[in-house]
Design goal:
It catalyses: Endohydrolysis of (1->4)-beta-D-glucosidic linkages in cellulose, lichenin and cereal beta-D-glucans. This protein is mainly alpha-helical. 47% of the residues lie in helices and 5% in strands. The protein has one domain: Alpha/alpha barrel (Glycosyltransferase).
Length: 509
């Protein structure tokens, strides 16, 4: 788009004034007369939301915190993790509102944070370094978890015992049991996802830290070999531990395709392209899958591989463009293949439990695919209806805007963003008084009186995105309602990329 210089200047002045206004009067921002849906003007401060979406990860850190830790009510926790197995497993992330470290969603979170930076990091400006640090907190831990060949430590903490307590991570006294997969007890899905995370992150650090990047890619190669050679589901070998929490329902073939796609991207070794060509039709059998998340990677792999066909012109991956198009068509309301449900307020709705993870992952895929289509001058054809990259961006923006407050209850589902946001999130550390306020230990069950109370959480977990509203756009803001009120790392990870894109496209970065 070419505007005259004067318009550009006026527009940047207007954006600056709007930004200043939103910072100075955050409570009146949504009532501002300029808050309307005009395509040229941002209805949200995406830059602010981007900063907060990355800041959230600091609130989820386990282990020894750094001196520059910005979410200051969190302190060191779980400093002896791994000692039960004589291995150092200190660090990593708590996945949600509890104090268990689950390797499968942690690896997926790391992959999606990395993909966010690979696609949109160039637009992040001052936030790029914070995003890299969030990724590194994940990869440092994944390197520890894969230190022994043919073994991956996939969980620290007994989920059932942990869930029987409501206590701060700093006070934890439940068993920090360590669970692993190996050649005799395989776990191809968690192993291949870990390989994907390490490979994707190696691309993030390729220029800024080439030595670290090489360590990551070498480990990714080794871990993927293990995933592929010793095939089996960790939901079988560790069923009593990982189910029903992060039980794998889609099988491990999607992760093998996803892991191979990331290794192909990171190494350019023809072996991985060959692997995809030979095994792709078996691994990607569920062609009409249209749910992308920590469990099911089919759609993500298709979008990722379609880039190789669209931009690198790898003809053998031609089918992935078609598969990716099918996914897009399934999302378009009113298109002939539409298979998606939306709330009356317009939110994509996949399931009652933590629905927002599908909103953020789908929005990211829409923006990423729109980028690939634009670069290759292509469109999506949905049974005679042409869908342009612009249309994909519009749909993604609408989803992100809903999340940020453009919804029937005028609630931002990101904690700390906008005038109204969830005050009683299902999160132990956020809901209990901090160490600074209450230095004495809060015992396992003593915290339940707080969990069951109506009082707002004393510690604001800035940037946390919760599970979100129900199918009718309702949100009770109840702490006990984990399906709607619990934040999770894998809800935020893909959102980081989308917010970077939106902040840039509206001249906020």
């Amino acid at each position: 788009m070419i505007f005259s210089l004067s318009f550009t200047l006026l527009f940047s002045l207007f954006s600056t004034l709007l930004l200043l206004h939103s910072n100075a009067f955050p409570l009146h921002y949504h009532n501002h007369p300029l808050h309307h849906h005009h395509s040229r003007f941002a209805t949200h401060n995406y830059r602010d939301a981007l900063s907060k979406s990355i800041l959230f990860f600091e609130g989820q850190r386990s282990g020894k915190l750094l001196s520059n830790q910005r979410i200051s009510w969190r302190k060191d926790s779980a400093l002896s993790d791994g000692s039960a197995m004589h291995v150092d497993l200190v660090g990593g992330y708590y996945d949600a509102g509890d104090n268990v470290k689950f390797g499968f969603p942690m690896a997926f979170t790391t992959t999606m944070l990395s993909w966010s930076v690979i696609e949109f990091g160039g637009l992040m400006k001052s936030e790029l370094q914070n995003a890299r640090e969030a990724i590194r907190w994940g990869t440092d831990y994944l390197l520890k978890a894969t230190v022994h060949p043919n073994i991956i430590y996939v969980q620290v903490g007994d989920a059932k015992k942990d869930h029987a307590c409501w206590e701060r991570p700093e006070d934890m006294d439940t068993p920090r049991s360590v669970f692993k997969i190996d050649a005799n007890n395989p776990g191809s899905e968690v192993a291949a996802e870990t390989a994907a995370a390490l490979a994707a992150a190696s691309l993030v650090f390729r220029r800024s830290d080439p030595v670290y990047s090489k360590i990551l890619v070498r480990r990714a190669i080794r871990v993927f070999q293990f995933a592929d050679k010793y095939r089996g589901a960790y939901s079988n070998s560790l069923k009593h531990v990982v189910c029903p929490f992060y039980c794998d329902y889609s099988g491990y073939l999607d992760e093998l395709l996803w892991g191979a796609a990331w290794l192909h991207k990171a190494t350019k070794n023809p072996m991985y392209l060959n692997y995809i060509q030979v095994n792709g039709h078996i691994l990607g059998a569920a062609q009409f899958d249209n749910t992308f998340g920590w469990d099911n990677k089919h759609v993500g792999a298709r979008i990722l591989l379609s880039k190789e066909f669209l931009i690198q012109k790898v003809q053998s991956l031609h089918d992935y463009k078609g598969h990716a198009d099918n996914f897009i068509c399934s999302l378009i309301p009113g298109a002939s293949f539409s298979a998606s449900q939306y709330t009356p307020g317009g939110l994509l709705f996949k399931m009652n439990d933590s629905n927002m993870q599908y909103v953020t992952s789908t929005s990211f895929l829409l923006l990423t695919y729109a980028k690939y289509l634009t670069m290759s001058h292509m469109v999506v054809n949905c049974g005679g209806t042409t869908v342009t990259p612009k249309r994909l961006r519009t749909i993604a923006k609408k989803q992100v805007d809903y999340l940020l407050g453009d919804n029937p209850v005028k609630m931002s589902y990101m904690v700390g963003y906008g005038p109204r946001y969830p005050r009683r999130i299902h999160h132990r550390g956020s809901s209990l008084p901090s160490i600074a306020v209450h230095p004495g230990k809060i015992q396992c069950s003593a915290g339940f009186s707080v969990m069951n109370s109506q009082s707002p959480n004393p510690n604001v977990l800035v940037g946390a995105v919760v599970g979100g509203p129900d199918l009718h756009d309702r949100f009770p803001d109840e702490r006990s309602d984990y399906e709607q009120s619990e934040p999770a790392t894998y809800i935020n990870a893909p959102l980081v990329g989308s917010l970077a894109y939106l902040a840039h496209s509206f001249g906020q970065l």
